[in-house]
Amino acid sequence: PGFDDPARRKLSIIADEVSHLEEMVAEMRDFVQHPAAQKRPGQITAVVDEALELFQDTFEEHNIQVRRVEETPLPSVAFDPKQLHQVLINLLKNAVEAMPTGGEITITSRVRGANAEISVRDTGAGLAPEVAENIFQPYFTTKEKGTGLGLAICQNIMTEHGGCIFADSTPGRGATFTIQLPLEETSPVAGAPLPAEGNRG
């Protein structure tokens, strides 16, 4: 027998909640048991292209325009493609959520000093100062349904790559998240927290 509309709606809600729980469990696992980076030389912009392709339908549904800006060509650098893909997916997802009524995402690539740099800028509401100060802290979240681990995982990934991630925002004028990767392969920054920190007790 087929399901009536109320039953279908309930099943859809259950499916959404299960999917959300799976995402939360995956984030917890990635934070506590983060695998070591498997770095190899490659083009960061190719990973950006792949991430954007995944979001193509989402951008259309949410009336979001994407602009690419290449300030300077990026050379090949060493990185783990899966992990960098994870970082970019997280940044694009956050940008979409920051613009519920539509807007523009600008992705800028450049060489700055000894680093390759990718910036993801949205035209959303921006970050309040107290949010900007804590945005990379584990378990800090402004979302009703969020683990607060997405950006903490991104930070762990970038630290392990010898790079960094930072945010710049003016409330009411959007936010920009920037990732930096060293042009020359380096070890993780001395004294930086290990990805498995927190796996205690």
What does this structure look like?
- The model is unreliable at 188-201 (pLDDT under 50).
- A 5-stranded mixed β-sheet has the order 2-4-5-7-6. It has a two-stranded antiparallel ribbon with strand order 1-3.
- By secondary structure, it is an alpha+beta fold.
- It has helices at residues 5-32, 44-54, 56-61, 81-97, 129-134, 150-160, and strands at residues 40-42, 64-70, 77-79, 103-112, 115-121, 164-169, 175-182.
- It is globular and about 60 Å long.
- The longest helix is centred in the first third of the chain and has 28 residues, at 5-32.
Topology:
Blueprint: H1 5-32, E1 40-42, H2 44-54, H3 56-61, E2 64-70, E3 77-79, H4 81-97, E4 103-112, E5 115-121, H5 129-134, H6 150-160, E6 164-169, E7 175-182
Order of adjacent strands in the largest pleated sheet: 2-4-5-7-6
Average pLDDT confidence is 85
Biggest beta sheet summary: 5 strands, mixed
| Count of alpha/pi helices | 6
The tally of beta strands, per DSSP, is 7
What is the general shape?
Answer: globular
Structural class: alpha+beta
- What percent strand? 15-25%
Order of helices and strands: HEHHEEHEEHHEE
The rounded Rg comes to 18 Å
Helix content: 25-40%
Unreliable stretches (pLDDT < 50, length at least 5) are 188-201
What distance separates the N and C termini? 50 Å
Q: What keyword list fits this structure?
A:
201 residues, alpha+beta, 6 helices, 7 strands
